[in-house]
Amino acid sequence: MPLRFRNVDVTPDDPVESWGFEGMLAAMDRGYAVDWRKLIEAVFDDPVLRAIYDDARDAAESEATVILLDAALAARSRSTEQEARERLRAAFRATGLTHAQLAGRLGTSRPRMTSYLSGSVTPAMDVLVAIEAIARERRAPLLAAHLELV
Questions:
Q1: Which end of the chain has fewer CB within 10 Å, C or N?
Q2: Are 127 and 116 in contact (CB under 8 A)?
Q3: Angle, to 10 degrees, between the axis of helix 20-30 and the axis of helix 48-59?
Q4: How far apart are the C-alpha atoms of 140 and 127, rounded to whole Å?
């Protein structure tokens, strides 16, 4: 069932700028991903809406949705360097390897790997792709162990 607003003279199809507090609150508590995306994009693009968003988030009943929306706003605010560094760190954690072990797999040194993960040196994109591939490779046997063939 699509989101519907109560007590306001706008619909979820109208621009978020016209939703006001009540519309934002309804989207947070009773909305769906499509409504949340529209809300996040508008708040990110228009700083004036941020104050209304903050008031609505404080009044929202759905704590999980607020956490999700705040994370989405934070993700949109990250620079490309921050995004790449976070992906690199997440891929490293997913490998389950030490800095030295991963460096060995990549053909680099442990100090160089540490400098990549700390963000003091930005690696070439192929390093990120390689680490993500190693993470997938190491995760596949773990996932296969949990499969049950019926």
A1: C
A2: yes
A3: 50
A4: 20
